[in-house]
């Protein structure tokens, strides 16, 4: 007869073998949206990203493995330490499986470190630094929408080719701004242009007067705005007040969104050359998504909001196809499955975490050219993924063999 202890131990092992996989499979899948709800990037992502996530969950069917899909959200206040604290709590105690959004490059990189520690998936749909899939890449991070390399190469090269060959940068003084200036400056110089200088400004700046005076004094043909959101809007408005464009210099908004154009109005924004990964009026799929989004949010989606929908839906499809929430298995499936949705019809997730897809070069319409609300862009060119995004071999990502 076997000892009672051995029987208990065997029973315990059998119980664990029977229960553990089932419990893991049946635990509700939970998505966390870490966004900016109160500051300079709230129009770009914010509550619109939450709504986009909800739309993706609804379109997927609302359930995974027979349980409702849960979603939580929080404001990172654009502070890396706040982002890290929330992410740690979500992953340690609240059962969050995937975190999406991340409004700044600094918050994204901070949470990426935790993602490696906990071996949890995160998808960056707002932050832009090309370092996210370069020297700082992670096996658990996907970078979805755009990055500073892609924007620099689509906008910067187009402007230099059209005669804008001397540049001065107004740069947001943190990783994102530095990355925009670096990547765009490299393109300008590679295209035969010159960078005459730059000036750094704090995030969420109200008064650009001293910075604009330095840019004006540089006599550069192009003042490159290496910033985003409210900072870009304020810089363009105040440049108009200073008569900078009227005086012969031009502005280049390297990272700009349809929400920025809407806030500025076509009178101020007309003629700007910008790049986006999505525009609501590109095709039938983008128009259908834009119509659904504006009915819920009362604004057309930015490319980040459309990308958040896309990334959430792709993640859910990958979990379903994998039959598990296991991080490595799901990431492998996300790379295997093509990205085909309202955001893009030619997306592929690379091993460095970069989701590559077409980018688009637009010019903002004149007021008389617009046929109605949100009719803001003229399409100049579709830039294929292999021309827009940094080649895999050039990023310095340690994951790339």
UniProtKB/TrEMBL annotation:
Residues in domain Leucine-binding protein?
28-365
Q: Does the keyword Signal apply?
A: yes
- Signal sequence region: 1-24
Could you tell me which Pfam families the record lists for this protein?
Answer: Peripla_BP_6 (PF13458)
Please give the name of this protein: ABC transporter permease
Keywords in alphabetical order: Amino-acid transport, Signal, Transport
**GO BP of this protein:** amino acid transport
Query: What InterPro entries does the annotation carry?
Result: BCAA_transport, Leu-bd, Peripla_BP_I
The entry sums up its family as follows: Belongs to the leucine-binding protein family.
This protein's record includes keyword Transport: yes
